[in-house]
């Protein structure tokens, strides 16, 4: 449903997204500074001639959802690893450990 003023003219019910408009203009000027729909500030700075990092390049391991995984790892947990002595062979003397994950709710 569209809101109207006293004269019956349509009125916007939400403010314009100024940041989105500015990003769209920036994308028109520097499309190479965008990655996965977001501004890659390091690429933008490099495009503008500002060297971002003078350290030697290195390989990185990244995947979709990496930030969420890191955020999840930083959350406090009450999970505890509990040894299964009955399934172990010479538990007290071994120097090797095999950890198998299982979700247990109490």
Q: How confident is the prediction overall: mean pLDDT?
A: 80
Protein structure class: alpha+beta
Indicate the overall shape. elongated
List unreliable stretches of 5+ residues.
none
Cα-to-Cα separation, first versus last residue: 48 Å
What is the succession of H and E elements?
EEHEEHH
Topology:
Layout: E1 3-4, E2 10-11, H1 18-29, E3 34-35, E4 38-39, H2 41-47, H3 66-73
Antiparallel strand pairs: 1-2, 3-4
Summarize the model shown.
The chain is an alpha+beta fold and 106 residues long. Helix content is 25%, strand content 8%. The longest helix has 12 residues.
Task: Please tell me about this protein's structure.
- The chain has 106 residues and is of the alpha+beta class.
- The protein contains three helices and four strands.
- The strands form two sheets. Strands 1-2 form a two-stranded antiparallel sheet.
- A hairpin with a 5-residue loop joins strand 1 (3-4) and strand 2 (10-11).
- The longest helix is centred in the N-terminal third of the chain and has 12 residues, at 18-29.
- It is elongated, with a radius of gyration of 27 Å.
- The two termini are 48 Å apart.
- The mean pLDDT is 80.
Labels describing this entry:
25% helix, 8% strand, elongated, 106 residues, two-stranded antiparallel sheet, alpha+beta, 3 helices, two-stranded antiparallel ribbon
